[in-house]
Amino acid sequence: METLPQLPQDIIVNILSRLPVKSLLQFKCVSKPWRSLISDPHFAKLQLTQSQRNGNFSSQRVLLITEPPESAACEASGDDDDSKLILKLEYPTAMKRTPDSDELMDGQVDLGGSCNGLVCLVFENDRVFLLNPTIRETKELAKLNAFDRMGTFSYGFGFDFSTNDYKVVRAARPSSEDDASSETEVEILELKSNIWRRIEGFKSGIEIEGPGIFLHGALYWLGEKESDGLEIVNVIVSFQLAEEKFQLMPLPDQIEESNDSRVLGVSGDCLCLFNGCGERYFEAWLLKDSNKSSWTRLFGVQRDLVPRHRYWEKALCYTKSGKVVIDYGGRCLVWYDPKEKTSKTYTSRSNWGWFDPAIYNESLISPNCYDA
Predict the structure, then answer these.
(1) What values do phi and psi take at 187, rounded to 5?
(2) Residue 55, pLDDT score
(3) DSSP 291-306
């Protein structure tokens, strides 16, 4: 019996790099050479590049930070049952209360953002972890420097293409309105050096909230700014990771300034603004070119057609199949189709009874990718 000829290694690498992460993790069992290849950091970067180039929406998921953690597919079908929709996960040992425990460490957990399959989690504004939920690896970063005062913190996590390095950003603003400080204090950590350093912040009168969204070398937060007449207006605050500079971007001109139920999300590799439009309309806008602030309206529906719950809603993303993934107070996720006016709901059955959601893409990137 003749044996089949072996494919050249570069062709094998090219073929495997185009496959989804789930398949590649299974293929680690094929042979030792395949396991070594799929575990290689250079192959992980190649697979990520191929996935991003092909616009692989199927790899986009929502991490439900709860106990135990869960992961939901963003591209949900109305026919999917919970077993296909939700993955049950567990936290790596470093993030558990004790090595033998199944529970997450005690204390407040803040989402620092996500990038290239890595999710940044901050415990008690002190301990910072990078977690890849797909390959279930984690890394604890250097402890944050203590600020002279207590305040409100916002975080961001992204990739600086100019230095080929990941960066974590923390912005702290005073807890008291009487504080005389002229700017929000900002610290940044580069993963390769693992050292926190202070950079120039932004002036008072501007506030940001929540974790920053990373896209195309920049972080984006929804913020508030005092206008000349002391009126509070919404803006988008961007932070270019290469230049380490903050900038303000306007919202679409057609949006009513009086409305306050707005959130930022993602649609593929574009920034998405979800606008509650009071009690009348629910709409979404897509930012295709941040340099030109060119907004395109995705949809608008009557407000009473959107599923309502007693919890505050936060739209997370707009999927390729045209659904809006909405978090209702960390109690349930809803996939709402504004065209068909249909929805699917998943209610978490975790021990906590609630969750914090984080959008991420499946990848093989290890949080320990720069370790010697």
Answers:
(1) -120, 155
(2) 72
(3) TTTEEEEEEEEEGGGS
Written as one string, the DSSP assignment of 157-172 is EEEETTTTEEEEEEEE
Sequential DSSP letters for 257-279:
TT---EEEEEETTEEEEEE--TT
Torsion region of 113: left, alpha or beta (phi above 0 gives left; psi -120 to 50 gives alpha): left
| The token pair that represents 363 in the structure block | 């990848």
Residue 255 is given by DSSP the state: S
Q: What is the DSSP letter of 211?
A: P
Cis ω for the linkage preceding 252 (within 30 of 0): no
> Which residue type does 354 have?
W
**Distance from the Cα of residue 153 to its chain's centroid:** 17
Q: Does the predicted model carry a pTM greater than 0.85? A: yes
Query: For 104, which DSSP code?
Result: B
Angstrom distance (rounded) from CA 363 to CA 135:
8
Distance, in Å, from the CA atom of 169 to the CA atom of 333, rounded to the nearest integer, reads 28
Q: What is the pLDDT of residues 153-171, one digit of tens each?
A: 899 999 999 999 999 999 9
The Cα–Cα gap between 74 and 56 comes to: 12
Angstrom distance (rounded) from CA 95 to CA 88: 16
End-to-end CA separation in angstroms for the chain: 46
